[in-house]
Amino acid sequence: MISAVKSLFLNKYNLSMKALFLSLLCTIGFASFAQNNIVIHLDGQTADISGQTHTVVAPSGDSFDIPFDVVNNTGSSAQWRITRKQLSLPTGWTDALCWGHSTDPFGGTCYSSTQMNSNPWTTPGSQTVLFTINDGEYGKMKVSVDPENNTFGQAHYRYYISANGVNMLDSVDLIVDYLATIKPQIKEEINISVAPNPSTEYVNIQFSGVEQLQLKMVDALGNVITREVLTSSRKLNVSDLNSGIYFLVFEAPGSKSITRKLVVRH
After folding, report:
1. Separation of alpha carbons 166 and 37, rounded Å
2. Among 264, 230, 261, CA closest to 244
3. Concatenated DSSP letters for the chain?
4. pLDDT band at 34 (very low <50, low <70, confident <90, very high)
5. How far apart are CA 71 and CA 137, in angstroms?
6. Domain spans, the chain
7. What confidence score (pLDDT) does residue 169 get?
8. What is the pLDDT of residues 189-229, one digit of tens each?
9. Residue 198: is the preceding peptide bond cis (ω within 30°)?
10. How far is C-alpha 183 from the chain's CA centre?
11. Which of 42, 53, 127, 191 shows the greatest Cβ crowding within 10 Å of its Cβ?
């Protein structure tokens, strides 16, 4: 009799522990992560949103970009990979991703929606696309979302940071709203002039077709010289720069980045 009661108790205990384990496993599988020594923020901003949710409204049914910076404050170098998980997605919506070092003038390695053909999907771990982020440096993660025209709704994505695509270190959620009240707008072409070019002391930057631009200036080696937001014409001092070739990278919401080559000659 005692053996039967003991056996019944053990069976119930094992079943309870198994249910608890499965519950924890499911919770971990869908949880977001935040780690103090990894900082995730929107490009051009400083507020840490790791482990949090960033919500944007799609400007139209066209593809648009959301750039993030992933900062390494771990005290050692890292080779991170990005895992994208689609938590919910309206029919027909697609997304793409670029991931690279902040000094990469080409924006890193970009993956199309066709390449990101699984859910979850993780950037490859081959040495041809891995790169090292030293302590204090950061990687650039540019997310591209393309809502299906006339398919209004809300998409929910989660982007994990890891070294191997398995053990997640940090994450950020992205919610994209495409509202039925948004009417397609005819986009005015963005025009940018950089003069004089070549330049010795100052270069005048003028633009039209957009209210503001994000400007990033890099040298031929990909080192970032300056970064700022332009809301009007700008007179840029280049007298302290070494003679050589520089690249001015302009970004506007909902548009592809525009690059202008600048020659500084003293």
Report:
1. 19
2. 264
3. -HHHHHHHHHHHHHHHHHHHHHHHHHHHHH-----TTEEEEETT-----TTSEEEEE-SSSS-EEEEEEEEE-SSS-B--EEEEEEEE--TT-EEEEEEEETT-TT-SEEE-TTT--SSSEE---STTT---B-TT-EEEEEEEEEPPTT--EEEEEEEEEESSSSSEEEEEEEEEEE-TTPPP-PPPPPEEEEESSSBSSEEEEEEESSS-EEEEEEETT--EEEEEEESS-EEEE-TTSPSEEEEEEEE-TTS--EEEEEEE--
4. low
5. 6
6. 1-30, 38-178, 191-264
7. 94
8. 889 999 999 999 999 999 998 888 999 999 988 899 999 99
9. yes
10. 27
11. 42
State the Cα–Cα distance between residues 105 and 138, nearest whole angstrom.
Answer: 14
Predicted pLDDT of residue 36: 67
Residue linked to tokens 């039209």 = 208
2, pLDDT greater than 70 = no
Radius of gyration of the chain (CA): 24
CATH class label, 38-178:
mainly beta
> Does pTM top 0.85 for this prediction?
no
Rounded Cα distance, 241 and 201, in Å = 9
User: Is residue 117 a contact partner of residue 133, using CB atoms and an 8 Å limit?
Assistant: no
The CATH number given to 191-264 is 2.60.40.3080
In a 13 Å sphere around the CA of 21, the CA atoms on its Cβ side amount to 6
